[in-house]
Amino acid sequence: MKKRIVCFGDSNTWGFDAKTLERFPEGVRWTSLLAERLGEEFQVVEEGLSGRTAVVDDPLFEGLNGLNYIHPCLMSHAPLELVIIMLGTNDTKERFHLTSYNIAQGIARISQKAKATTAGIKGASPIVLVVAPPPIGKEYFETEVGKSMGKDCDLKSAELSTHLKGLMQIQNTEFLDTKGIVPMNTIDYMHLDEEGHRLLSELVFNKIKNILSRERNVC
Question: Does residue 219 have a pLDDT over 50?
Answer without folding.
Answer: no
